[in-house]
Amino acid sequence: MARFRHALLYQQVVELGSMAAAAREQGIAPSVVSKHLAELEASLGAQLLTRTTRKIAMTEAGEYFYHSICGIGANWQALQDETARLNKRPAGKLSIAAPSLVHSRVLMTVLSGFAVHYPDVKLELRCVDYEDIPFDRADISIARKREGFDSATYIGVPIYSYSNSLFASSDYLAKHGEPQNTQDLLHHQCLSYGVGKSRRYWHFSQADSILVNGHLSSNDTEVLIRAALQHQGIVYIPRLLVSDEIERGLLKPILVNQCQSEPFELMAYYRKQAYLPQKTRVLIDYLIK
User: Fold this and answer.
1) Whole-prediction pTM value?
2) Average per-residue pLDDT in the chain?
């Protein structure tokens, strides 16, 4: 058990970024942390960390060991949690990783209801890049479906199917006219996603793709939404991101029957483990509903 505790201590050092921070968290002296890590490295016959006066860095062996112990540690914690809370209400900290836009425009509305049903679950929302999903330091990661994710380590559960649609403000449409077909879009300001591209296309499931024009593009969807709200053009995004603005009459769907993208899946990812914590299970069930 001592070696296992040392392994968990190593995980904490990596995640907090220093031995001193791990020592403070554990309430022990930094020298004790250093001693335990040295014992762990000696027992493994491999150096896990390179140490300088300013920082620590994982070796190749250390990185492999870290990702492995994350899974083992999660299973151990889940087993303890499930045993202690058997026949009790879900409780404890639940970490959710997602891109910031998913947090602010999708999850916040849903999670307010979840908090009413499960007040003993304390939610910790981590904003991460899409490329970092699934995030190994979160209980659940939520994002658009990722092709080629590590299915040997993680399970992906579809929670919502959606498509991109076209939206614009009533003021913009009153000034520039409402497009009646995809060809009309060629004469409009199209707020497109992406930077560093000289040519931008919008692809539709039931119509030909078009080369769009516009004075503004961005790699931040929130910027495009703000631009549409300021009457600067037409945006091509998922409806669930602007459902509030549609309900309030700030944005209007256009070419509804002609311009939809192929469907996407919003996914919840969690690490494979023998004992899935009750708090994780109830959140996934709640999101699917």
Assistant:
1) 0.69
2) 88
